[in-house]
Design brief:
The chain is an alpha+beta fold and 163 residues long. The chain is built from 6 helices and 4 strands, in the order ααααββββαα. It folds into 2 domains: 32 residues, no CATH class; 95 residues, Alpha-Beta Complex (Sufe protein. Chain: A), CATH 3.90.1010. Helix 2 packs antiparallel against helix 3 and helix 5 crosses helix 6.
């Protein structure tokens, strides 16, 4: 009887633990962040402006205004490494809207990676064009590629001041 009660308690605790278990997102290497120099230059100017005084805050207000105007052209995002291969995209912007997304580099070293890339590239492209930003759904079976694609799109958007 004591064993049965112990087994039931252990089972209940185990089930509760499994149900409440949270998975943290895969952390990207910090080495991927330095290549985008526009993001690096924007961050230091934002941090000092927000901390000193109300005068500095007023000075910081005009700085974002010019950056909100998007330029036309094509902008290549950062090369984002994944465990299956590097991902890099180029966005084409016209009249402040993303009109095309071109995959510059996608995982293709292995046959399975090439197969997944063939399937997900047009889907991710249409998602970015539809959403007009990098907040797109992750494709099941291509999670790392989807996240890296969105990260590269986001970097290209920052270059064009769309993000």
């Amino acid at each position: 009887m004591k064993r049965a009660i112990g087994a039931v308690v252990a089972t209940v605790v185990g089930v509760i633990w499994l149900v409440t278990f949270r998975v943290t997102p895969h952390a990207r290497p910090v080495a991927a962040a330095p290549p985008p120099s526009p993001a690096t230059s924007e961050t230091p100017s934002s941090a000092p402006a927000a901390t000193p005084s109300p005068e500095a805050t007023a000075t910081a207000a005009p700085t974002p205004a010019p950056t909100s105007k998007a330029a036309n052209g094509s902008f290549t995002g950062a090369l984002v490494p994944t465990r299956f291969g590097d991902v890099q995209v180029r966005i084409v912007v016209a009249s402040g809207r993303i009109t095309d997304v071109v995959a510059v580099q996608m995982p293709s070293d292995r046959a399975r990676s090439a197969e997944i890339t063939q399937y997900v590239t047009p889907v991710l492209r249409s998602e970015v064009i539809r959403a007009q930003n990098a907040q797109i759904d992750v494709i099941s079976g291509a999670t790392f590629t989807s996240e890296a694609y969105a990260e590269s799109v986001n970097d290209a958007m920052r270059q064009d001041h769309l993000a």
